[in-house]
Amino acid sequence: MLDSLSDNRAIVAAILIPIFLIAFAWSIFHGRRQGRLTENDEVFGDPVRTKGGWYWSVTGVCALFLVWFYFSWGVGRAYFPEAANNMCQVAKLEESVGPIKASLPIGSRYYKSTLLAARNSDQLDVLQAQLASTPFTADEKAELAVLVDQTKALIANSSDPANMSDEARSGLSDIAKRIDGLSGFLDAGHDGMTPSAEALQQPKWGTTFVEIPILPTTARGVMFDNAATQAAEIAGDFNKIRNKNAANDLLIADTKARIDALKAVNEAGDFDEATADARVAYVKAVERIFRRLDDGLIFPAAALEEVNEAVVGLDKSSSRAQGAFRIADALLFPGPGIVKSATQCTEQGSARWLPKPTDVVATFGRLANPDLENGGGYRGFPLLWWDWVAVADVVAFFVPDWIADAWPGEYARHGSDGTIQPNFKDKLLDVATGDVNLGHFPMLDGHIWDSLFRVLVALGLGILLGVPLGLFMGVSKFFKSFFDPLIELYRPVPPLAWAPLILTIFGIQDDGKIFLLFMVAFAIMVISARTGASGVKLSKIRASHSLGATDRQIMWTVIFPNALPEILTGIRIAVGVCWGTLVAAEMLAGTTGIGFIENIARTVSDYELIWVTILIMGILGLMFDLMMRWVIEKTIPWRGMG
Length: 642
Description:
Blueprint: H1 2-7, H2 9-38, H3 54-71, H4 74-79, H5 83-101, H6 112-130, H7 138-159, H8 166-187, H9 197-200, H10 219-240, H11 246-268, H12 273-294, H13 305-322, H14 324-332, E1 338-340, E2 345-347, H15 350-353, H16 357-368, E3 385-390, H17 391-398, H18 402-406, H19 424-433, E4 440-445, H20 447-475, H21 477-490, H22 495-506, H23 510-534, H24 538-546, H25 551-588, H26 594-603, H27 607-635
Antiparallel strand pairs: 1-2, 3-4
Helix pairs in contact: 2-3, 5-10, 5-13, 6-7, 6-12, 7-11, 7-12, 8-10, 8-13, 11-12, 16-27, 20-21, 20-23, 20-25, 22-23, 22-25, 23-25, 24-25, 25-26, 25-27, 26-27
């Protein structure tokens, strides 16, 4: 059923988008109406006025999904399902004309000939300036100076329209006429053109590994496909044209002979290593430039103007031929559009890395399916399910092995008959290592639970140890002076800076990740509790002393309740920081968890799976935060009412 969401994503989007639009408009209307009804009863800054307002939540959710549908091309897919195939055919034409445009100012700011002439001239100027410091003899330097001058002359001769051969001139003129003919073909329209039966049998857009059907499925697409075929032939002929002129023939032969002579001297000469390397490098640099010029790729700028104008005309004809779907492309398909690669057309821009909402739901459904044998879960592990867990394994997790080692006495030894009678020390070791049958109980299992378990255990330890220490640091000189430097020494260090060290010490098991998260939560809870304790009004403490309260009573009935808002806020912050740190730790080293899934998805560029993990992390983080809001509201309802 979930796979059908992806197969019919266009239909689903066409239904959901109007619903979100209506809900978006209604929520804004309702919110403004409610605001007018209560504006006389509320004052700015009153925290009570922030309660309620669920209709604005509807506005935000609808806006989020509408933006998601738009930038993932869901809107365009829903209402212009054939647009992608048409855009693919246009991309074919662009790819075919690309080699011609690369030589013209359309593809870049300059003619390719201009860039080649400028680059080679600059390199020759550099070589000419370096010639005086090279390890050549005076005669050889004179010979090299002639070589540089002759190579420059090749550039000048190729750039002079008077030297251009009739063959090259007529070839470029023929290319321009053929491009004009292609423009006429597009202007004639697509009447009478029909897609082939093979094209109509292609899978729908985005339902297979081939993202967009490459064969044209509309009459307009057939027209652009035919134009692309013709353009490819024209571009092939254009690339064969060379500016070979008689003025350069003698220069090329003479320059080549001079270079070969210098290379022979370098090979036969008895030079030290540094001198030989310098001589070879200089001659090779001159030869490299000469060979580029020998290809005949530099044309006079005026010679390409006719081709440039023809390509400009082709672009205009292509725009006219695209018709209404060109407007849809501009408005409903944000980003670079569609690009034709060697074997298929692919979406680019935001549609490339932002999957469709229906695909994300379908991917999440596959991950959430606990039936591992039929493709559920991820890497042989469910996303969130339950399993029977041995009680002994849980006990072993909390009971360290050294307790058995520290127990008085020795471990059992085998007797003369080879049998062993375990004593209490042996049984204690079995409990610490989980090698005992204490029964089983149902327990949550899966990638999500593993991540939650690590966060909850670390957060619990951080609260259990950090809050008392923070409270005592807020009331005691000794605790503050002794522990403050230690806490502040490691607290500013980013958690990921500790991750490689901790994972190296503890390995990739849960204890290393839990310890890393504990360090994060512990520092936050200490600071929060200390700030809350030190912020208690002195008048309350003095009043308590006057009434005969003991230090313990003052701590738990005055200081702790007053510090509770800071402590709960610290827990709320610690949850978020621990969650983000855990995912990074699981990405560094782990075999389960949400971060592990995202890391694998990143390596294979599975954007849908990456977004699923991001949404899972966001939803779980939101659930944690909502839970903490509820706890804060129930435990300190007086906050903000003073």
